[in-house]
Amino acid sequence: MPSFVGVTKCPVGVAHTYMAAEKLQKVGQSLGYTVKIETQGASGVEDHLTPDDVKNADFVIIAADVEIDGMDRFTDKKVLFSTTAAAIKDSAALIDKAKKADIYGGKEDAADEKVEGDAHEQSPLIKQLMNGVSHMIPFVVVGGLFIALSITLGGHATKAGMVVAPHTIWATMNQVGTLGFTLMIPILAGYIATAIAGRAALAPAMLSAMVANSPDILGTKAGTGFIGAIIVGFAAGYLVKWFNSWPVPKSLRAIMPIFVIPLLGTAIISGAFVFFLGGPISWLMTALTNMLNVLSKNPQTSIILGLLLGAMVSIDMGGPINKVAFLFGVASITAGNPEIMGAVACAIAVPPLSAGIATLIRSDLNSSEETAAGVPAILMGLIGITEGAIPLATANPKHVFPGIITGSAVAAAIGMFFKITDAVPHGGPIVGVLGATNNLLLFFLAIIIGVAVSAAIIVTLKIRAAAREEAHAQA
Amino acid sequence: MKTLVTTNIYTDVTAPTDKNGALGVMAGLLAKDHHLNEKNLLAGFEQREAESSTGFGNGVAIPHAKIDGLTDPFVGVVTFTQPVTWQSLDAAPVTIAIALVMPADDPDQLHLKVLSKLARKLMDDDFIAALHKNQHDAQALADVLNEVL
Asked: How far apart are CA A238 and CA A258, in angstroms?
């Protein structure tokens, strides 16, 4: 159903504000739109437009005779500026014009805008992060479920990992799913950046996120994963926001967002990753591998090794640290001692399974993102796709990370303790079901305990935070 | 029924057919009822009209004013025997004027809520038709308005 939102405001704030709102509402509804109009009148703001209202609207109509409050909410939306009189006289014409209205690019100097002191409003950083997460979730869901389904139905456990037979429908499905996972990185970065600085930030953020996730460009063994994407998103967003504050001659203004800013932004952010971060990432990966080597030499530290491997798997879920742990496990298969892969395989399933299960407990505390990503995360967890937890961890890092890191560490340590082996470089319950582990029951036990620990921590933290918020609201 | 906002209704008033003249007559009638300074009230109306015309079409206008020191807001309805030129949105002359008079600094949000409800109602074609139908009958007009106020 098409929809639009609007704001009305007149000088006295008693009559025209409401007449214009009513007219837009009536005419809009008769034309088949879902309509919500915020009135900024003498008695204050009524029918306050929430971020969701604005997000879901196809366009925005400002019918005001004086400047309205909170214009920044409509950055990057189609916005038609008009008067209360025009709305009262002919709302149908306004709606028609608004469909083709220009995109509102924000104020010249957004820093000058007053920040509303509403305690319930999220901080801008969280809002920007969530803009990225909400755009990313569909990619994770499609990518993860396609990969999971193709592995379940068409995969074979081999020494090279879970291999889907080529030239089958499952192989195609797997490739499509992989594209979804590839795209989620630039989408996350791009939409964090646009939430900060508008459209001009999209290209630098998306391109740089791809650079940060391309090991061959970075000169490392692994890309920086979703954490790199978040860093790129914020860096590109605030860099472009700063560009936007430059005093630019009028003749150049039109080409700034389509030419100058994307070029400069991409060059600076991508360059910084390649020249300044490629080296440290490689160094970090080597250092971690050396540390694991030392620990694995001594059987007395095997539990510590397990804890460490588990924590590494979940700390960046597909990033360089996860990669080190995973490759270390794979190396143990080649060396004929697949106990380390066994421990890693226990940990791999814990983040998506536990974060997903946590959304089903006290689901009244969920955000819409958590509800959307919860069940897909559980399905991905069963197939050993750690990335399924990324949307949940990004949406709620303060509660999810302590849980999944602890839970994964516990699961891997138990795996080490029971000397569970896994001959396939893949993780999660599926490798057990396919017979790649030496003891299915103990393998499952390790996963279940890890998941229980993680989910308990996540839910406890979430409930405590909700209780604190409530106490705060009542005070 | 006790209403939140008092209503004074004058039907079939003979007034000049220009907006300022008509506003002057309205200010005179309403100021007397509420012991207000007629000149202040007229100045309030004129100030608002200078920003933009309150004639929103369909032969109805809603002049309004904020008055310093007023304690209770009120609604005054005047219907004219001769249509008044009001520079309305649809250019049609006005036969019904609904005046909204409010304190300059009203601590009571309830009044504003009531007035905003009335303003929304003015966008309802049936409501406007009811006003026109009863524009010679003060009691009937009061009933129509009191349903809202």
From this structure: 17
Amino acid A58 reads D
Pair A106, A133 in one domain: no
Q: Determine what percent of chain B falls in helix, strand and coil, rounding each to the nearest 5.
A: 40, 25, 35
Q: How far is A115 from chain B (nearest CA, A)?
A: 25
- Residue A44 maps to which CATH number? 3.40.50.2300
Given this model, what pLDDT does residue A434 score?
85
Closest to A397 (Cα-Cα) out of A125, A141, A202: A125
State the nearest Cα–Cα gap between B30 and chain A, in angstroms: 19
For residues A292 and A322, state if they share a domain: yes
Decide if A304 is inside a domain: yes
Lowest mean pLDDT among A233-242, A261-270, B57-66: B57-66
Strands A161-164 and A155-158: antiparallel
Compute the distance between CA of residue A91 and CA of residue A68 in angstroms, rounded to an integer: 19
Query: How many interchain CB pairs under 8 A, A with B?
Result: 72
Please tell me the distance from the alpha carbon of residue A135 to that of residue A76, in angstroms, as a whole number.
Answer: 15
- Write down the mean pLDDT value for chain A: 88
Check pLDDT > 70 for residue A129. yes
Global pTM exceeds 0.90: no
Structure confidence at residue B3 (pLDDT): 54
ipTM of this model? 0.86
- Nearest partner of A326 among A221, A434, A188, judged by Cα: A221
Is the domain spanning B6-146 CATH 3.40.930.10? The answer is yes
Given the structure tokens 């994407």, which residue do they identify? A229
Residues A183-205: tens digit of each pLDDT: 999 999 999 999 998 888 999 99
- Among chain A, residues having any CB pair with chain B shorter than 8 Å are 11-19, 21-23, 26, 39, 41-44, 46, 65, 83, 85, 88-89
Residue A238 covered by a domain: yes
Lowest-pLDDT choice from A311-320, A369-378, B69-78, B89-98: B69-78
| Contact check, Cβ <8 Å, B113/A43 | yes
Residue A466 falls inside a structural domain: yes
In this structure, are A43 and A130 located in the same domain? no
Tell me the chain B residues in contact with residue A64 when contact means C-beta distances shorter than 8 Å: none
- Choose among A74, A114, A118: nearest CA to A98: A74
Domain that holds residue A91: 3-112
Q: Mark residue A462 as left, alpha or beta (left: phi above 0; alpha: psi -120 to 50; beta: remaining).
A: alpha
Provide the 8-state DSSP code for A100.
T
Q: What is the DSSP letter of A260?
A: I
Q: Is residue A318 within 8 Å of A331, Cβ to Cβ? A: no
Axis crossing angle, helix A302-316 with helix A339-348, rounded to the nearest 10: 40
H/E stretch holding A261 reads helix A261-272
Buried b (16+ CB within 10 A) or exposed e, A40-73: bbbbeeebebeeebbeebebbbbbbbeebebbeb
